[in-house]
Amino acid sequence: MKKGSYMSSEMMHRIIDMIESAARSRPSAVEFEMAYQTRIAIDRIRFAIKQAEQYSKPCDRMREASLQLLDALDRLESLERRFQARSRVHSGPPSASVEHPTHGSKIGNEAGL
User: Fold this and answer.
1) Which residue in 7, 16, 75, 65 sits closest to 41, CA to CA?
2) What is the DSSP string of 36-84?
3) What is the pLDDT of residues 35-60, one digit of tens each?
4) CB 69 within 8 A of CB 53
5) Is 101 helix (H, G, I), strand (E, B) or coil?
6) Predicted pLDDT at 3
7) pLDDT under 70 in the chain at which residues?
8) Are 102 and 92 in contact (CB under 8 A)?
9) Alpha carbons 27 and 89: distance in angstroms, whole number
10) Residue 16 class from Cβ within 10 Å (0-12 exposed, 13-18 middle, 19+ buried)?
11) How many CB atoms lie within 10 A of CB 60?
12) In angstroms, rounded to a whole number, what is the distance separating the alpha carbons of residues 106 and 44?
């Protein structure tokens, strides 16, 4: 073999580390599923709060239940904001157009890209 015609073990380890680091830094499929379930829970808690306020008689127990629901809502919204921030950090801005690799023509957003 010629000198320099193969990658050194150290270089391969660096490349693998970079790839693994990039994969760990992006939200996983499970995290996306959890974010979706969080959004559903937020919507249902909001609905329950509105229904309780609209149809129940004011009393200490209902106020306490509403406060508990509001606390849960705040916690879920905080979690959702952290997920949104994390997923935005690793996704670049969408490009307005993409150059076709063989034809050199541009395909714009109207094509769904």
Assistant:
1) 75
2) HHHHHHHHHHHHHHHHHHHHS---HHHHHHHHHHHHHHHHHHHHHHHHH
3) 899 999 999 999 998 988 888 888 88
4) no
5) coil
6) 54
7) 1-7, 89-113
8) no
9) 10
10) exposed
11) 7
12) 44
> How many residues appear in the chain?
113
Cα–Cα dist 2/41, whole Å: 61
* Of 73, 83, 76, the residue nearest 47 (C-alpha): 73
* Residue in this structure with the two tokens 């801005």, named with its chain if needed: 93
SS3 percent helix, strand, coil of the chain, rounded to 5, is 70, 5, 25
Nearest residue to 37 (alpha-carbon basis) of 79, 66, 69: 79
User: CB under 8 Å to 104, separation ≥6 — which residues?
Assistant: none
